[in-house]
Amino acid sequence: MKKKFYNKRFMSIKVGELLCFIGFYFFFAIFYYITLFINRQGYTDKNDKFFNLITVIDDSGLDYFLKFLITIPIWYLLFRKLRHWSMSKRLLLHIVLLPTFVIVWQQLYYIICEKIGFYHLGGTGRVWDIYIPALFYILQFGIMHSYTFYVENRRKLKLEGELRTAALKSELSAIKAQLNPHFLYNIFNTISASVPPKNEKTRHLIAELSDLFRYQLKASQVEKVPLKEELEFVNKYLDLEKERFQERLKVEVNVEDNLKYEMVPPMLLQPLVENSIKHGLSSLIEGGKISISIFKKHDKLHFEISDTGIGIEDKTSVFEKGIGLTNTKLRLEKMYQSTLNLSDNQPQGLKISFAI
Length: 356
Description:
- This protein is 62% helix and 12% strand.
- It has helices spanning 2-7, 15-39, 53-81, 87-116, 128-177, 181-194, 200-219, 227-245, 270-281, 323-336; strands spanning 9-10, 13-14, 225-226, 249-255, 263-264, 288-297, 300-307, 341-344, 350-355.
- The strands form three sheets. A five-stranded mixed sheet has the order 4-6-7-9-8, covered by helices on one side. The chain has a two-stranded antiparallel sheet with strand order 1-2. Strands 3-5 form a two-stranded antiparallel sheet.
- The mean pLDDT is 81.
């Protein structure tokens, strides 16, 4: 229960991380206050109470509260707006951000102290109000960068583990698929030959199914196929589904002819189309429509598979359940460092998109 609470997000930040960030400032504010108390030997003065709200604000509260406020926009810039930058570029940016942080904090702190009558260092002593905030800045952002690197590294290790598992499953599937596949084709031919001539439609469906298995075997042996072959495979699969759905299933494919010889990973589209039918349209009495659009933009091949089904509310948890979507997501990340995006289709349904 506690773990779920800490993993909840507030303004896209995990609650646990936010509490640690606030706790970090709270700890240093209290630590600095105690240091000042001991330095002035307040424990020897009966009139110098250890805890006094005004004294706490004067000694460290205002100081660290301003540091906290100034840190927020810098954190947002480094870890949100510029998170796509390399670590080295963001570290170099601190050459500008560190003095900015110190100067802004010092000026604000002095102005507020003078307005409300609090003490601040003067003369050459002001150098400490440059040195100490600079050290604090280096400490806090050093911790933030280290934590971000740790989280990213842990995510990569988890992804590598998932990819190894997926690769192992794929290899096992390929081995199984190669265990005398001609036996399977012979069985299909035997069944097809036993179908009476008047049931030509059934004979055709068996031939289509045989072609699907043949393509699956090929997919286990090659890394890429022409887009044309992938689309032919998906169309055969959809033809079989149309026999089940009849008029309830409508299909629209938009692909320019000049793209049909682009090389793509085999079995890339079928799991996504199957997901749209199984989880989007099958439960609707009236059925629906599946649209496949493929186009080239900025030297990348863009894919969009949309349906007019029931849609998915929790799009983050869907990868924890479905095998087809999860495996396709892992393949895209491994082969192209690309992402499988899920969004709401208009007027209803789900849209799956990615680029390679």
